[in-house]
Amino acid sequence: VQLQASGGGLVQAGGSLRLSCAASGHTFSMYSMAWFRQAPGKEREFVAVIGRSGGMRYYADSAKGRFTISRDNAANTVYLQMNSLKPEDTAVYYCAATTSELGYTSATRYAYWGLGTLVTVSS
After folding, report:
1. What are the pLDDT digits (tens) for 69-122?
2. Average pLDDT of every residue of the chain
3. In the chain, where do the E strands start and end?
4. Cα angle 33-119-6, degrees, rounded to a multiple of 5
5. What is the DSSP letter of 53?
6. Among 96, 24, 104, 94, which Cα is nearest to 56's?
7. Closest Cα partner for 48 from 19, 26, 75?
8. What local confidence, expressed as pLDDT, does residue 101 receive?
């Protein structure tokens, strides 16, 4: 499956952005989808994951209450709605796919990755 993330940009602290990740090449509903992010000088970290049908969702503590992951299997797209953004949310955001339904938070469990989209939150 090929993944293409979009929707990043520059936003002030407290603002919102919605990231999208469009998938192609295989049946989208076969994959659990996740968002990771990587800030400059830091390791890639898990943000959120959603199961194949959307019933399973799990968030990193840093995302709980502010970010919402969702998917539209008819549109082959997964979304990350980010509200109340903070400067520490500044990072390149990546979408990733796995055939497992176990809600993995480790990047090593994801075989498919899109190119990232940069989110910059100014203070």
Report:
1. 999 999 999 999 999 999 999 999 999 999 988 878 999 999 999 999 999 999
2. 96
3. 2-6, 9-12, 17-24, 32-38, 45-50, 57-59, 67-72, 77-82, 91-98, 112-113, 117-122
4. 50
5. T
6. 104
7. 19
8. 82
Residue written as token pair 């520490």: 88
The Cα–Cα gap between 77 and 99 comes to 16
Q: Which residue matches tokens 């800030």?
A: 39
In this structure, the dihedral spanned by the alpha carbons of residues 19, 79, 6 and 38, taken in order and rounded to 10 degrees, is 70
How confident is the model at residue 50, as a pLDDT? 96
Contact 29, 53 (CB under 8 A): yes
